[in-house]
Design brief:
This protein has about 500 residues and is an alpha+beta fold. Strands 3, 4, 5, 6, 7, 8 and 9 form a seven-stranded antiparallel beta sheet that branches. A hairpin with a 2-residue loop joins strand 1 and strand 2. Helix 12 runs parallel beside helix 15. The longest helix is centred in the middle third of the chain and has 23 residues. It is elongated. The termini are far apart. The relative contact order is 0.05. The N terminus is likely disordered.
Length: about 500
Protein backbone atom coordinates (compact mmCIF):
# COMPACT_ATOMS: atom_id res chain seq x y z
CA UNK A 1 0.00 0.00 0.00
CA UNK A 2 1.38 3.36 -0.99
CA UNK A 3 2.36 6.06 1.48
CA UNK A 4 -0.54 8.12 2.71
CA UNK A 5 -0.52 11.90 2.79
CA UNK A 6 -0.42 13.86 6.01
CA UNK A 7 -3.78 14.06 7.76
CA UNK A 8 -5.93 16.81 6.32
CA UNK A 9 -4.11 16.89 2.96
CA UNK A 10 -6.34 16.88 -0.11
CA UNK A 11 -5.98 13.60 -1.89
CA UNK A 12 -4.73 10.22 -0.72
CA UNK A 13 -5.25 6.52 -1.32
CA UNK A 14 -8.14 4.18 -0.71
CA UNK A 15 -6.77 1.37 1.46
CA UNK A 16 -6.53 -1.97 -0.33
CA UNK A 17 -6.28 -0.28 -3.76
CA UNK A 18 -3.99 2.16 -5.52
CA UNK A 19 -6.83 4.47 -6.53
CA UNK A 20 -6.30 8.09 -5.50
CA UNK A 21 -8.93 9.77 -3.36
CA UNK A 22 -9.51 13.06 -5.15
CA UNK A 23 -10.50 16.18 -3.26
CA UNK A 24 -14.29 16.33 -3.00
CA UNK A 25 -14.65 12.61 -3.73
CA UNK A 26 -17.85 11.09 -2.32
CA UNK A 27 -17.17 9.29 1.04
CA UNK A 28 -16.95 5.54 1.04
CA UNK A 29 -19.78 3.66 2.67
CA UNK A 30 -19.12 2.59 6.26
CA UNK A 31 -18.98 -1.10 5.32
CA UNK A 32 -16.46 -0.38 2.55
CA UNK A 33 -14.34 1.69 4.93
CA UNK A 34 -14.29 -1.10 7.49
CA UNK A 35 -13.30 -3.57 4.81
CA UNK A 36 -10.55 -1.24 3.61
CA UNK A 37 -9.23 -0.82 7.16
CA UNK A 38 -9.30 -4.59 7.73
CA UNK A 39 -7.37 -5.18 4.50
CA UNK A 40 -4.77 -2.58 5.41
CA UNK A 41 -4.26 -3.92 8.95
CA UNK A 42 -4.10 -7.56 7.86
CA UNK A 43 -1.70 -6.90 5.00
CA UNK A 44 0.57 -4.82 7.22
CA UNK A 45 0.62 -7.56 9.84
CA UNK A 46 1.26 -10.36 7.34
CA UNK A 47 3.92 -8.40 5.45
CA UNK A 48 5.46 -7.10 8.70
CA UNK A 49 5.23 -3.52 7.48
CA UNK A 50 4.64 -0.49 9.72
CA UNK A 51 1.28 1.16 10.14
CA UNK A 52 0.89 4.81 9.25
CA UNK A 53 -1.45 6.98 11.28
CA UNK A 54 -2.20 9.26 8.32
CA UNK A 55 -3.35 6.30 6.26
CA UNK A 56 -5.67 5.04 9.01
CA UNK A 57 -7.04 8.55 9.44
CA UNK A 58 -7.80 8.84 5.72
CA UNK A 59 -9.87 5.65 5.91
CA UNK A 60 -11.77 6.83 8.99
CA UNK A 61 -12.49 10.19 7.36
CA UNK A 62 -13.68 8.57 4.13
CA UNK A 63 -17.11 7.92 5.67
CA UNK A 64 -17.93 11.60 5.74
CA UNK A 65 -18.24 11.69 9.52
CA UNK A 66 -20.20 8.44 9.95
CA UNK A 67 -18.89 6.14 12.67
CA UNK A 68 -17.65 2.67 11.83
CA UNK A 69 -19.51 -0.20 13.44
CA UNK A 70 -16.22 -1.89 14.45
CA UNK A 71 -17.93 -5.28 14.14
CA UNK A 72 -15.70 -6.67 11.40
CA UNK A 73 -13.29 -9.43 12.38
CA UNK A 74 -10.53 -11.35 10.67
CA UNK A 75 -10.92 -15.02 9.78
CA UNK A 76 -9.04 -15.81 13.02
CA UNK A 77 -11.58 -13.81 15.05
CA UNK A 78 -9.47 -10.71 15.71
CA UNK A 79 -11.25 -7.32 15.89
CA UNK A 80 -9.74 -4.37 14.06
CA UNK A 81 -8.12 -2.85 17.15
CA UNK A 82 -6.43 -6.15 17.98
CA UNK A 83 -4.84 -6.26 14.53
CA UNK A 84 -3.41 -2.79 15.00
CA UNK A 85 -2.06 -3.54 18.48
CA UNK A 86 -0.23 -6.73 17.48
CA UNK A 87 1.64 -5.07 14.61
CA UNK A 88 5.31 -5.51 15.54
CA UNK A 89 6.85 -3.32 12.84
CA UNK A 90 5.43 0.11 13.61
CA UNK A 91 7.26 3.13 14.95
CA UNK A 92 6.30 3.88 18.60
CA UNK A 93 4.83 7.28 17.73
CA UNK A 94 2.93 5.87 14.77
CA UNK A 95 1.41 2.91 16.64
CA UNK A 96 0.37 5.26 19.45
CA UNK A 97 -1.32 7.59 16.96
CA UNK A 98 -3.02 4.68 15.15
CA UNK A 99 -4.44 3.19 18.34
CA UNK A 100 -5.60 6.57 19.61
CA UNK A 101 -7.32 7.30 16.32
CA UNK A 102 -9.13 4.00 16.31
CA UNK A 103 -10.26 4.20 19.94
CA UNK A 104 -11.35 7.81 19.54
CA UNK A 105 -13.23 6.72 16.41
CA UNK A 106 -15.29 4.20 18.37
CA UNK A 107 -13.15 1.07 18.63
CA UNK A 108 -13.93 -0.45 22.04
CA UNK A 109 -10.69 -1.41 23.86
CA UNK A 110 -12.66 -3.85 26.03
CA UNK A 111 -13.96 -6.01 23.15
CA UNK A 112 -12.57 -9.55 23.23
CA UNK A 113 -11.33 -11.67 20.36
CA UNK A 114 -12.38 -15.27 19.76
CA UNK A 115 -9.80 -16.40 22.34
CA UNK A 116 -11.46 -14.27 25.00
CA UNK A 117 -8.70 -11.63 25.14
CA UNK A 118 -9.01 -7.89 24.99
CA UNK A 119 -6.51 -5.99 22.82
CA UNK A 120 -4.39 -5.33 25.91
CA UNK A 121 -4.38 -8.99 26.89
CA UNK A 122 -3.64 -10.09 23.33
CA UNK A 123 -0.55 -7.87 23.16
CA UNK A 124 0.78 -9.07 26.51
CA UNK A 125 0.24 -12.71 25.52
CA UNK A 126 2.45 -12.13 22.47
CA UNK A 127 5.37 -11.35 24.79
CA UNK A 128 4.69 -14.53 26.73
CA UNK A 129 4.57 -16.55 23.51
CA UNK A 130 7.84 -14.97 22.34
CA UNK A 131 9.57 -15.94 25.60
CA UNK A 132 8.22 -19.47 25.38
CA UNK A 133 9.41 -19.90 21.79
CA UNK A 134 12.86 -18.54 22.64
CA UNK A 135 13.19 -21.14 25.43
CA UNK A 136 14.76 -18.56 27.70
CA UNK A 137 17.50 -17.47 25.28
CA UNK A 138 17.29 -13.68 25.13
CA UNK A 139 18.67 -11.89 22.05
CA UNK A 140 18.42 -8.47 20.44
CA UNK A 141 15.62 -9.49 18.08
CA UNK A 142 13.53 -10.83 20.95
CA UNK A 143 14.07 -7.70 23.00
CA UNK A 144 13.12 -5.53 20.02
CA UNK A 145 9.94 -7.53 19.46
CA UNK A 146 8.91 -7.22 23.10
CA UNK A 147 9.68 -3.50 23.01
CA UNK A 148 7.11 -3.20 20.23
CA UNK A 149 4.60 -4.89 22.52
CA UNK A 150 5.43 -2.34 25.19
CA UNK A 151 4.69 0.44 22.71
CA UNK A 152 1.21 -0.97 22.04
CA UNK A 153 0.49 -1.35 25.76
CA UNK A 154 1.55 2.24 26.41
CA UNK A 155 -0.60 3.42 23.50
CA UNK A 156 -3.65 1.67 24.96
CA UNK A 157 -2.93 3.14 28.40
CA UNK A 158 -2.88 6.60 26.86
CA UNK A 159 -6.51 6.18 25.76
CA UNK A 160 -8.90 7.51 28.42
CA UNK A 161 -11.56 5.11 27.11
CA UNK A 162 -9.58 2.14 28.47
CA UNK A 163 -10.82 1.08 31.91
CA UNK A 164 -7.83 0.69 34.24
CA UNK A 165 -8.66 -0.82 37.64
CA UNK A 166 -6.91 -3.23 40.01
CA UNK A 167 -7.26 -6.24 37.71
CA UNK A 168 -5.62 -4.40 34.83
CA UNK A 169 -2.88 -2.98 37.06
CA UNK A 170 -2.05 -6.43 38.44
CA UNK A 171 -1.98 -8.10 35.03
CA UNK A 172 0.21 -5.36 33.53
CA UNK A 173 2.62 -5.44 36.47
CA UNK A 174 2.89 -9.22 36.21
CA UNK A 175 3.55 -8.97 32.48
CA UNK A 176 6.15 -6.25 33.07
CA UNK A 177 8.06 -8.36 35.58
CA UNK A 178 8.00 -11.60 33.64
CA UNK A 179 7.96 -10.71 29.94
CA UNK A 180 8.98 -7.11 29.22
CA UNK A 181 12.45 -5.63 28.74
CA UNK A 182 13.78 -4.25 32.03
CA UNK A 183 14.61 -0.92 30.36
CA UNK A 184 10.92 -0.33 29.56
CA UNK A 185 9.44 -1.00 32.99
CA UNK A 186 9.67 2.41 34.59
CA UNK A 187 8.01 4.11 31.61
CA UNK A 188 5.03 1.72 31.76
CA UNK A 189 4.79 2.04 35.53
CA UNK A 190 4.71 5.80 35.07
CA UNK A 191 1.82 5.48 32.62
CA UNK A 192 0.01 3.21 35.07
CA UNK A 193 0.43 5.68 37.92
CA UNK A 194 -1.19 8.39 35.83
CA UNK A 195 -4.18 6.15 35.16
CA UNK A 196 -4.62 4.25 38.44
CA UNK A 197 -2.81 6.25 41.08
CA UNK A 198 0.46 5.88 42.96
CA UNK A 199 -0.84 3.71 45.80
CA UNK A 200 -2.43 0.98 43.67
CA UNK A 201 0.51 0.69 41.29
CA UNK A 202 3.13 0.68 44.06
CA UNK A 203 1.29 -2.05 45.95
CA UNK A 204 0.96 -4.20 42.85
CA UNK A 205 4.57 -3.77 41.78
CA UNK A 206 5.92 -4.47 45.29
CA UNK A 207 3.77 -7.61 45.29
CA UNK A 208 5.36 -8.69 42.02
CA UNK A 209 8.80 -8.13 43.52
CA UNK A 210 7.82 -10.34 46.45
CA UNK A 211 6.68 -13.08 44.07
CA UNK A 212 9.95 -12.80 42.19
CA UNK A 213 11.92 -13.16 45.43
CA UNK A 214 9.95 -16.24 46.48
CA UNK A 215 10.25 -17.82 43.05
CA UNK A 216 14.01 -17.31 42.94
CA UNK A 217 14.51 -18.79 46.40
CA UNK A 218 12.52 -21.95 45.70
CA UNK A 219 13.37 -22.72 42.09
CA UNK A 220 16.59 -20.92 41.18
CA UNK A 221 18.65 -20.75 44.36
CA UNK A 222 16.92 -23.69 46.09
CA UNK A 223 17.31 -22.17 49.53
CA UNK A 224 15.00 -21.14 52.35
CA UNK A 225 13.07 -17.90 52.69
CA UNK A 226 14.28 -15.13 54.99
CA UNK A 227 11.60 -13.60 57.19
CA UNK A 228 13.35 -10.23 57.29
CA UNK A 229 13.14 -9.95 53.49
CA UNK A 230 9.45 -10.79 53.47
CA UNK A 231 8.83 -8.30 56.25
CA UNK A 232 10.51 -5.59 54.18
CA UNK A 233 8.37 -6.35 51.12
CA UNK A 234 5.20 -6.26 53.19
CA UNK A 235 6.23 -3.01 54.85
CA UNK A 236 6.63 -1.44 51.41
CA UNK A 237 3.13 -2.44 50.38
CA UNK A 238 3.41 -5.96 48.96
CA UNK A 239 0.32 -8.16 49.18
CA UNK A 240 0.64 -11.84 50.14
CA UNK A 241 -2.48 -12.58 48.05
CA UNK A 242 -0.91 -11.48 44.74
CA UNK A 243 -0.92 -14.45 42.37
CA UNK A 244 1.42 -16.02 39.89
CA UNK A 245 -0.09 -18.76 37.72
CA UNK A 246 -2.83 -19.10 40.31
CA UNK A 247 -0.47 -19.38 43.29
CA UNK A 248 -0.45 -16.65 45.93
CA UNK A 249 2.71 -15.43 47.60
CA UNK A 250 1.64 -17.38 50.70
CA UNK A 251 1.34 -20.58 48.67
CA UNK A 252 4.79 -20.03 47.14
CA UNK A 253 6.15 -19.94 50.71
CA UNK A 254 4.43 -23.26 51.45
CA UNK A 255 5.83 -24.80 48.26
CA UNK A 256 9.43 -24.01 49.25
CA UNK A 257 10.78 -27.17 50.96
CA UNK A 258 14.08 -25.56 52.00
CA UNK A 259 12.89 -23.15 54.71
CA UNK A 260 13.53 -23.87 58.41
CA UNK A 261 10.70 -23.83 60.93
CA UNK A 262 11.87 -20.69 62.72
CA UNK A 263 11.79 -18.58 59.55
CA UNK A 264 8.52 -20.06 58.31
CA UNK A 265 6.76 -19.38 61.59
CA UNK A 266 7.70 -15.70 61.29
CA UNK A 267 6.79 -15.50 57.60
CA UNK A 268 3.36 -17.08 58.01
CA UNK A 269 2.47 -14.83 60.93
CA UNK A 270 3.60 -11.74 59.02
CA UNK A 271 1.54 -12.65 55.97
CA UNK A 272 -1.57 -13.65 57.89
CA UNK A 273 -1.40 -10.52 60.01
CA UNK A 274 -1.32 -8.47 56.81
CA UNK A 275 -4.17 -10.38 55.10
CA UNK A 276 -5.87 -13.12 57.15
CA UNK A 277 -8.03 -14.20 54.20
CA UNK A 278 -5.00 -15.09 52.06
CA UNK A 279 -5.04 -18.55 53.65
CA UNK A 280 -8.49 -19.17 52.16
CA UNK A 281 -7.42 -18.65 48.54
CA UNK A 282 -7.29 -21.88 46.54
CA UNK A 283 -5.09 -22.48 43.50
CA UNK A 284 -5.95 -23.93 40.11
CA UNK A 285 -6.16 -27.40 41.67
CA UNK A 286 -8.78 -26.11 44.15
CA UNK A 287 -6.31 -26.62 47.00
CA UNK A 288 -5.75 -24.21 49.87
CA UNK A 289 -2.29 -23.53 51.37
CA UNK A 290 -3.02 -25.90 54.29
CA UNK A 291 -3.69 -28.71 51.80
CA UNK A 292 -0.28 -28.27 50.23
CA UNK A 293 1.38 -27.88 53.63
CA UNK A 294 -0.03 -31.26 54.70
CA UNK A 295 1.30 -32.84 51.49
CA UNK A 296 4.89 -31.92 52.31
CA UNK A 297 6.17 -35.32 51.19
CA UNK A 298 4.93 -34.70 47.64
CA UNK A 299 6.37 -31.16 47.64
CA UNK A 300 9.80 -32.55 48.54
CA UNK A 301 9.58 -35.12 45.74
CA UNK A 302 8.78 -32.40 43.21
CA UNK A 303 12.08 -30.76 44.17
CA UNK A 304 13.97 -34.06 44.09
CA UNK A 305 14.72 -34.02 47.82
CA UNK A 306 15.39 -37.36 49.57
CA UNK A 307 13.94 -36.18 52.88
CA UNK A 308 10.65 -34.24 53.27
CA UNK A 309 10.42 -31.02 55.26
CA UNK A 310 7.28 -30.81 57.45
CA UNK A 311 8.04 -27.24 58.57
CA UNK A 312 5.21 -25.70 56.51
CA UNK A 313 2.59 -27.93 58.14
CA UNK A 314 3.95 -27.55 61.66
CA UNK A 315 4.01 -23.75 61.46
CA UNK A 316 1.13 -22.77 59.17
CA UNK A 317 -1.68 -24.33 61.21
CA UNK A 318 -0.53 -22.77 64.51
CA UNK A 319 -0.29 -19.39 62.75
CA UNK A 320 -3.80 -19.76 61.33
CA UNK A 321 -5.47 -20.55 64.66
CA UNK A 322 -3.50 -17.77 66.35
CA UNK A 323 -4.21 -15.00 63.84
CA UNK A 324 -7.15 -15.75 61.53
CA UNK A 325 -10.60 -14.91 62.94
CA UNK A 326 -12.97 -17.86 63.46
CA UNK A 327 -15.13 -16.80 60.52
CA UNK A 328 -12.13 -17.06 58.16
CA UNK A 329 -12.25 -20.71 57.05
CA UNK A 330 -8.82 -21.73 55.84
CA UNK A 331 -9.71 -25.39 55.34
CA UNK A 332 -7.83 -26.43 58.49
CA UNK A 333 -8.53 -30.00 59.59
CA UNK A 334 -7.16 -33.06 61.32
CA UNK A 335 -5.07 -35.22 59.00
CA UNK A 336 -4.75 -38.94 58.41
CA UNK A 337 -1.91 -40.62 60.29
CA UNK A 338 1.13 -41.78 58.32
CA UNK A 339 2.52 -45.30 58.25
CA UNK A 340 5.52 -44.22 60.33
CA UNK A 341 3.49 -42.08 62.73
CA UNK A 342 3.49 -42.93 66.40
CA UNK A 343 2.57 -41.43 69.75
CA UNK A 344 4.90 -40.81 72.65
CA UNK A 345 4.54 -42.94 75.77
CA UNK A 346 5.41 -39.93 77.92
CA UNK A 347 4.83 -36.22 77.26
CA UNK A 348 7.85 -34.45 75.73
CA UNK A 349 9.69 -32.00 77.95
CA UNK A 350 8.56 -28.98 75.95
CA UNK A 351 4.96 -30.18 75.58
CA UNK A 352 2.30 -27.64 76.56
CA UNK A 353 -0.72 -28.50 78.69
CA UNK A 354 -3.53 -30.08 76.63
CA UNK A 355 -7.29 -29.62 76.95
CA UNK A 356 -8.09 -33.31 76.58
CA UNK A 357 -6.70 -36.60 77.83
CA UNK A 358 -6.35 -40.01 76.23
CA UNK A 359 -9.68 -41.79 76.18
CA UNK A 360 -11.86 -38.70 75.90
CA UNK A 361 -14.49 -38.45 73.21
CA UNK A 362 -14.16 -35.53 70.82
CA UNK A 363 -15.31 -34.29 67.45
CA UNK A 364 -12.60 -33.82 64.84
CA UNK A 365 -12.80 -31.68 61.76
CA UNK A 366 -11.56 -33.80 58.87
CA UNK A 367 -11.13 -33.50 55.13
CA UNK A 368 -14.02 -34.60 52.94
CA UNK A 369 -14.35 -35.16 49.16
CA UNK A 370 -14.49 -32.10 46.94
CA UNK A 371 -12.19 -29.99 49.09
CA UNK A 372 -14.78 -29.78 51.87
CA UNK A 373 -14.48 -30.59 55.56
CA UNK A 374 -16.84 -32.18 58.06
CA UNK A 375 -16.96 -33.05 61.75
CA UNK A 376 -16.61 -36.69 62.79
CA UNK A 377 -16.98 -38.27 66.20
CA UNK A 378 -13.97 -40.08 67.63
CA UNK A 379 -11.91 -40.89 70.67
CA UNK A 380 -8.41 -39.80 71.59
CA UNK A 381 -6.23 -42.92 71.46
CA UNK A 382 -2.79 -41.35 71.74
CA UNK A 383 -0.94 -38.21 72.76
CA UNK A 384 1.92 -36.34 71.10
CA UNK A 385 1.81 -37.97 67.71
CA UNK A 386 4.81 -37.47 65.44
CA UNK A 387 6.19 -38.73 62.15
CA UNK A 388 9.70 -39.86 61.32
CA UNK A 389 10.86 -36.67 59.61
CA UNK A 390 9.54 -34.26 62.24
CA UNK A 391 12.29 -32.30 64.01
CA UNK A 392 13.16 -33.32 67.58
CA UNK A 393 12.62 -29.73 68.70
CA UNK A 394 8.90 -30.02 67.92
CA UNK A 395 6.82 -31.74 70.65
CA UNK A 396 4.49 -33.34 68.12
CA UNK A 397 0.77 -33.16 67.42
CA UNK A 398 -1.16 -33.20 70.71
CA UNK A 399 -3.75 -35.82 69.73
CA UNK A 400 -4.19 -38.96 67.69
CA UNK A 401 -7.90 -39.65 67.25
CA UNK A 402 -9.64 -42.81 66.13
CA UNK A 403 -12.86 -41.81 64.41
CA UNK A 404 -16.05 -43.82 64.73
CA UNK A 405 -15.89 -44.38 60.98
CA UNK A 406 -12.60 -46.25 61.52
CA UNK A 407 -10.05 -43.69 60.28
CA UNK A 408 -7.20 -42.50 62.46
CA UNK A 409 -6.28 -38.83 62.30
CA UNK A 410 -4.05 -36.43 64.22
CA UNK A 411 -4.53 -32.83 65.28
CA UNK A 412 -1.54 -30.56 64.69
CA UNK A 413 -2.93 -27.93 67.08
CA UNK A 414 -5.00 -28.15 70.24
CA UNK A 415 -7.76 -25.78 69.18
CA UNK A 416 -11.55 -25.73 68.81
CA UNK A 417 -11.14 -25.06 65.10
CA UNK A 418 -10.19 -28.71 64.53
CA UNK A 419 -10.90 -30.57 67.82
CA UNK A 420 -13.80 -29.93 70.18
CA UNK A 421 -16.21 -31.64 72.54
CA UNK A 422 -19.27 -30.64 70.53
CA UNK A 423 -19.93 -30.71 66.83
CA UNK A 424 -21.04 -27.32 65.47
CA UNK A 425 -24.71 -26.79 66.27
CA UNK A 426 -25.10 -30.14 68.02
CA UNK A 427 -25.02 -31.22 71.64
CA UNK A 428 -22.62 -34.03 72.45
CA UNK A 429 -25.37 -36.24 73.88
CA UNK A 430 -27.55 -35.84 70.81
CA UNK A 431 -24.65 -36.58 68.49
CA UNK A 432 -23.67 -39.65 70.48
CA UNK A 433 -27.25 -40.96 70.43
CA UNK A 434 -27.70 -40.44 66.69
CA UNK A 435 -27.62 -43.77 64.78
CA UNK A 436 -24.75 -44.28 62.35
CA UNK A 437 -24.75 -46.59 59.36
CA UNK A 438 -22.09 -49.31 59.40
CA UNK A 439 -18.91 -48.32 57.57
CA UNK A 440 -15.66 -49.96 56.66
CA UNK A 441 -13.45 -50.35 59.70
CA UNK A 442 -16.32 -50.00 62.20
CA UNK A 443 -16.99 -52.87 64.56
CA UNK A 444 -20.28 -54.69 64.94
CA UNK A 445 -22.19 -54.48 68.23
CA UNK A 446 -20.84 -56.95 70.73
CA UNK A 447 -23.16 -59.36 72.49
CA UNK A 448 -22.07 -58.43 76.01
CA UNK A 449 -22.85 -54.75 75.93
CA UNK A 450 -25.20 -54.52 72.96
CA UNK A 451 -23.13 -51.64 71.51
CA UNK A 452 -20.52 -51.40 68.84
CA UNK A 453 -17.85 -48.78 68.49
CA UNK A 454 -20.27 -45.92 69.18
CA UNK A 455 -21.15 -47.53 72.48
CA UNK A 456 -17.49 -47.86 73.37
CA UNK A 457 -16.91 -44.22 72.53
CA UNK A 458 -19.82 -43.12 74.71
CA UNK A 459 -18.62 -45.29 77.58
CA UNK A 460 -15.08 -43.97 77.23
CA UNK A 461 -16.33 -40.40 77.27
CA UNK A 462 -18.32 -41.02 80.43
CA UNK A 463 -15.33 -42.57 82.17
CA UNK A 464 -12.95 -39.78 81.13
CA UNK A 465 -15.34 -37.06 82.26
CA UNK A 466 -15.85 -38.60 85.67
CA UNK A 467 -19.33 -39.94 84.94
CA UNK A 468 -20.40 -43.49 85.52
CA UNK A 469 -19.66 -45.68 82.52
CA UNK A 470 -22.08 -48.51 81.90
CA UNK A 471 -20.42 -51.86 82.59
CA UNK A 472 -16.78 -52.76 83.24
CA UNK A 473 -13.87 -50.92 81.65
CA UNK A 474 -12.67 -53.95 79.65
CA UNK A 475 -15.07 -55.85 77.40
CA UNK A 476 -14.69 -58.67 74.93
CA UNK A 477 -16.12 -58.21 71.45
CA UNK A 478 -15.98 -60.00 68.12
CA UNK A 479 -14.46 -58.18 65.16
CA UNK A 480 -15.61 -58.46 61.54
CA UNK A 481 -13.11 -61.23 60.82
CA UNK A 482 -14.51 -63.41 63.58
CA UNK A 483 -11.57 -63.02 65.96
CA UNK A 484 -12.14 -61.78 69.50
CA UNK A 485 -10.50 -58.74 71.07
CA UNK A 486 -10.46 -57.05 74.45
CA UNK A 487 -11.66 -53.44 74.29
CA UNK A 488 -10.59 -50.74 76.74
CA UNK A 489 -13.74 -48.61 76.82
CA UNK A 490 -11.82 -45.63 78.20
CA UNK A 491 -9.05 -45.38 75.64
CA UNK A 492 -10.77 -47.11 72.75
CA UNK A 493 -7.74 -49.38 72.25
CA UNK A 494 -8.20 -53.11 71.65
CA UNK A 495 -5.95 -56.17 71.61
CA UNK A 496 -6.52 -59.83 70.64
CA UNK A 497 -8.02 -62.07 73.31
CA UNK A 498 -9.54 -65.52 73.80
CA UNK A 499 -13.27 -66.17 73.09
CA UNK A 500 -15.71 -65.73 75.99
CA UNK A 501 -16.26 -69.50 76.31
CA UNK A 502 -12.56 -70.33 76.38
CA UNK A 503 -10.77 -71.58 79.45
CA UNK A 504 -7.68 -69.55 78.55
CA UNK A 505 -6.86 -66.54 80.68
CA UNK A 506 -6.15 -63.18 79.07
CA UNK A 507 -3.02 -61.44 80.33
Amino acid sequence: VGAAPVAGQAGGYVAGTMLPVAAGMMPLAVAAAEKALMTYLEESYMMDTPLLAAHVQSILQSTGGAMLSWQLRSEEGSPLLHLACINEASDPDEITAVIRLMVAGGADPHVKDDDGDTALQAVMSLSEDADRQSEGDADEELEATKTMHVNSVRALLSCPELHVALAEVNSICQWLRRHSPAACREAVLGDLRLRAGEAMVTRSWRSEELLSYLEQKAYDQRVGIEASKVEDFLARGASPSQRQNGATALLLVVLNPYSPMEELDKVFRLMLAAEPTVATIRDGFKLAPVNWASDYDNVAKQHGLPRPNPAALLTLLPAIVAICPPEVDCGEACLKVASDGQCSATPPRNAPTTRFLEGQRVFARVEAPGGETCWEEGIIVGMWYREGCWPETHPGAPYEIRLVIGTRVFAVVDHDRIVRTKAPGKAVAAAAAAPRPPSEGATAPDEAGGRGESGAVAAAAAGASGGAAAGPRFRKRQAHGGEWELLDTRSGKARPCSPPDSDEEDS
